Write a sequence for this structure.
C-alpha cells in the first residue's frame, strides 16, 4: 500500500505539475522553459556508468568514457538563421565542444527542407556550406539525413558533433568555484547583430547606413561567432574551471545557467560587459535587450583569481577582447548585478529577444 504522498503509481506532486501545465496556453518560440525542462530531465535518469556528464540545466555537452579517452557530444539545431545555415550549424556545435576543452572531430547532420520551396541548388548549397565549414576546423562530416519535410516554411538544420578530450583536461560548467573570477571574451550580442541585419535589412536601412549594414552582416566573421580560438588561448594561458557559450537567451540566460550548473552565486558588474555600439543601435530598432539576445561569439569562463589577469592578457594580445565581469561566490544559485542601489537580481529572460522578433 502506498504512502500518503502517492496515488497509485503517481505522486501528488506529479499530478499537480501535469494539471498546472495542461491548463496553460501553448508555449512560445524559443528554449523550453527551465522548470519544464528540469522536470522532463528528472524523469529520464541515466544509468550507464560510462556517462561522465549527462543532461542538466546549463550543461552544454554530454561526456562519455570511450576507452582511455572521453567523447564530448553535442546536438544543436539552427532554427533562427536562414542565410549561411550550413555554416552556422558547424560553428554553433563546435563552440559547445570547445567549452569542454575538447577538440571537435566528427559531425552528423539532419537537414529538413521546406516543401514547395526546395530546389536541387538549395540542397547542394547547404551541403557545401557544411562541408566547407568542417574543412576549416578539421572536422569530418560522417553522415546524417536530408529530406523535404511537410509543414516547413524554411530549412532547419540539426547537427550532432563529437569531440575528444583527455580526462584530465575536461572542463564543464560544474567546475566554477567560490573565489573564481568571471571573464567574458569579445562582447554581446554578436550573433543577434548578424542575424537581425541579415534577416531584416529593410527595417534597418532607415536607421543604419549601407556601410553599417554591411558591417553588421559581417559580425558572423568579425568579431565572429566562433569561440574555438578564445577557448584554446584561455586554456593555454591559465587554469580554466568552467566555460559556457551564451547562445539563446543571451548573456543573461548564460549567467543563470552557469549559476545553476555550478550551484554558486554570481556577482556581476554589467558596466564591465562590452556591448558593441552597432549592436546597441540594432537592438534599439527592434526594442530588445542586448543582454537577452542570442550571443554566440562571446565566451563566458571562470578561472581562479590568480590566473584571471594572465588569461585576459593572452586573449587581448591575440586580438580577442576579454574583460573580468564578476566573481563567483558561495550561496544560493543566483545572478546578482551591481547597481546604484546595491546588488539586484538579474532578470531571467523568459525567451530569447531575437525569438520574439522572429515570431512577431
Amino acid at each position: 500500500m502506498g504512502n500518503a504522498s502517492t496515488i497509485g503509481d503517481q505522486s501528488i506532486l506529479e499530478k499537480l505539475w501535469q494539471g498546472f501545465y495542461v491548463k496553460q496556453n501553448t508555449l512560445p518560440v524559443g528554449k523550453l522553459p527551465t522548470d519544464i525542462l528540469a522536470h522532463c530531465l528528472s524523469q529520464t535518469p541515466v544509468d550507464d556508468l560510462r556517462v561522465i556528464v549527462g543532461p542538466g540545466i546549463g550543461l552544454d555537452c554530454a561526456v562519455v568514457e570511450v576507452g582511455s579517452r572521453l567523447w564530448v557530444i553535442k546536438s544543436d539545431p539552427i532554427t533562427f538563421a536562414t542565410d549561411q545555415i550550413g555554416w552556422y550549424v558547424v560553428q554553433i556545435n563546435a563552440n559547445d565542444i570547445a567549452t569542454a576543452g575538447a577538440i571537435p572531430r566528427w559531425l552528423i547532420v539532419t537537414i529538413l527542407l521546406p516543401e514547395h520551396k526546395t530546389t536541387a541548388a538549395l540542397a547542394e548549397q547547404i551541403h557545401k556550406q557544411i562541408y566547407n565549414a568542417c574543412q576549416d576546423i578539421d572536422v569530418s562530416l560522417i553522415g546524417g539525413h536530408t529530406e523535404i519535410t511537410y509543414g516547413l516554411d524554411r530549412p532547419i538544420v540539426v547537427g550532432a558533433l563529437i569531440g575528444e578530450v583527455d580526462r584530465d583536461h575536461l572542463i564543464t560548467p560544474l567546475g566554477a568555484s567560490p573565489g573564481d573570477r568571471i571573464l567574458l571574451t569579445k562582447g554581446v550580442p554578436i550573433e543577434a547583430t548578424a542575424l537581425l541585419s541579415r534577416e531584416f535589412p529593410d527595417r534597418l536601412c532607415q536607421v543604419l547606413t549601407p556601410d553599417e549594414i554591411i558591417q553588421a552582416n559581417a559580425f558572423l566573421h568579425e568579431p565572429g561567432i566562433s569561440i574555438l580560438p578564445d577557448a584554446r588561448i584561455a586554456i593555454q594561458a591559465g587554469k580554466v574551471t568552467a566555460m559556457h557559450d551564451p547562445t539563446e537567451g543571451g548573456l543573461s540566460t548564460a549567467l543563470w545557467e552557469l549559476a545553476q550548473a555550478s550551484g554558486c552565486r554570481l556577482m556581476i558588474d554589467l558596466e564591465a560587459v562590452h556591448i558593441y555600439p552597432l549592436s546597441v543601435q540594432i537592438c534599439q530598432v527592434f526594442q530588445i535587450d542586448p543582454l537577452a539576445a542570442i550571443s554566440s561569439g562571446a565566451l563566458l569562463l571562470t578561472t581562479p583569481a590568480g590566473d584571471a589577469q594572465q588569461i585576459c592578457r593572452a586573449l587581448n594580445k591575440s586580438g580577442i577582447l576579454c574583460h573580468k565581469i564578476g566573481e563567483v561566490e558561495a550561496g544560493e544559485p543566483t545572478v546578482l548585478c551591481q547597481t546604484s542601489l546595491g546588488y539586484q537580481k538579474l532578470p531571467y529572460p523568459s525567451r530569447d529577444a531575437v525569438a520574439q522578433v522572429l515570431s512577431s
Q: What stands out?
A: The chain has two domains: 34-169, 173-359.
